[in-house]
């Protein structure tokens, strides 16, 4: 998909720009931002990186976003989360123009997704849908179970699956009979952030299992939510690292490209 995007971007008359804002010095966020900027370079998207100190005022961030909203060179604006506690995340996300909200976290884009007419879809769930689509895995009529109900993964994931005609169950920390519900899933998507939580006994024979989680196991090694033994039963299982993570970045590039195309009116989606 990145190769395809690279060709499309090269064919554009105008440079496509993504602004990435990092507030503070969270080590994981620094890695994510670096990876996003590198991916932009690889496909020919021009990136503008802004680093604000940990104690930056909320007003500074809002002023920066306001100036980027006006900046014609910038087609997408990304504020890396989590923000320091003294900054209101909702207020920051709300400040981004919906047409530049390439993370799809803003209320307008989430609302459109809920209506079934999405404009920009948040990158992780969108990446999961593309993984399924590109592997030729049909969703319509399937029993899909989503573990996790966050606004950035679980909820938009469930809405996308529903829009694609799956029968969707969303599980969370208060769900009862979670194991039994998981064992009914044709498509099981885990986004809870607990190492090796999903075990073989929770998986239906030949289920498609998508592991969104990024965790450290007891040895400090990167791992997902799904125990490797799941591979004994699943027909597909995405690896961590190297599965949903790279797809998330790909969809950020995709969203930025289409934000630019819509803005420049070059082609319609
Ligand atoms: P959140 O912490 O915001 O949400 C976690 C969700 O999991 C909540 O809905 C919570 O339920 C639920 N949950 C927690 N524990 C359990 C449990 N024991 N049983 C059932 N449900 C449970 O996390 P995010 O959605 O932001 O991220 C989820 C995971 O995905 C993380 O590991 C994160 O690092 C990863 N991630 C990966 C990305 C990628 O690119 N691959 C991108 C984004 C996230 P409740 O609502 O009841 O508290």
Characterise this structure:
The chain has 9 helices and 10 strands. By secondary structure, the chain is α/β, with parallel strands linked by helices. It folds into 2 domains: 119 residues, Rossmann fold, CATH 3.40.50; 116 residues, NAD(P)-binding Rossmann-like Domain (Rossmann fold, 3-Layer(aba) Sandwich), CATH 3.40.50. The strands form 3 sheets. It has a 5-stranded parallel beta sheet with strand order 5-4-6-7-10. Strands 2-1-3 form a 3-stranded parallel beta sheet, sandwiched between helices. A two-stranded antiparallel ribbon has the order 8-9. Strand 4, helix 7 and strand 5 form a beta-alpha-beta unit. Helix 1 packs parallel to helix 9. The chain is globular and about 50 Å long. The mean pLDDT is 96. Bound molecules: NADPH dihydro-nicotinamide-adenine-dinucleotide phosphate.
Question: How would the blueprint of this fold be written?
Answer:
Layout: H1 2-10, E1 17-23, H2 27-43, E2 46-52, H3 58-70, E3 76-79, H4 89-95, H5 107-115, H6 123-134, E4 143-147, H7 154-163, E5 167-171, H8 178-182, E6 187-190, E7 208-211, E8 215-216, E9 222-223, E10 236-237, H9 244-264
Parallel strand pairs: 1-2, 1-3, 4-5, 4-6, 6-7, 7-10
Antiparallel strand pairs: 8-9
The protein binds NADPH dihydro-nicotinamide-adenine-dinucleotide phosphate (NDP).
């Amino acid at each position: 998909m990145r190769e395809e995007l690279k060709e499309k971007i090269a064919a554009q008359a105008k440079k496509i720009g993504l602004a990435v804002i990092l507030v503070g010095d969270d080590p994981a966020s620094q890695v994510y931002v670096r990876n996003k900027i590198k991916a932009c370079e690889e496909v020919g998207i021009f990136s503008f990186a802004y680093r604000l100190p940990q104690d930056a005022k909320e007003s500074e961030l809002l002023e920066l976003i306001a100036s980027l909203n006006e900046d014609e060179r910038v087609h997408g604006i990304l504020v890396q989360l989590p923000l320091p506690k003294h900054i209101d995340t909702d207020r920051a996300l709300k400040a981004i123009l919906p047409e530049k909200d390439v993370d799809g976290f803003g209320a307008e884009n989430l609302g459109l997704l809920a209506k079934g007419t999405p404009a920009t879809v948040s990158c992780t769930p969108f990446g999961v849908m593309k993984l399924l689509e590109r592997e030729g895995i049909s969703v319509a009529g399937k029993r899909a179970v989503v573990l996790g109900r966050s606004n950035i993964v679980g909820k938009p994931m469930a809405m996308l699956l529903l829009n694609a005609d799956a029968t969707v169950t969303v599980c969370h920390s208060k769900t009862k009979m979670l194991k039994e519900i998981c064992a009914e899933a044709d498509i099981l998507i885990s986004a809870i952030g607990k190492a090796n939580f999903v075990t073989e006994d929770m998986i239906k024979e030949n289920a498609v299992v998508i592991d969104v989680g990024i965790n450290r196991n007891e040895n400090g090694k990167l791992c997902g939510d799904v125990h490797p033994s799941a591979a004994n039963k699943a027909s597909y299982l995405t690896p961590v690292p190297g599965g949903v993570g790279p797809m998330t970045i790909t969809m950020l590039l995709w969203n930025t490209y289409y934000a630019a195309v819509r803005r420049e009116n070059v082609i319609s989606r």
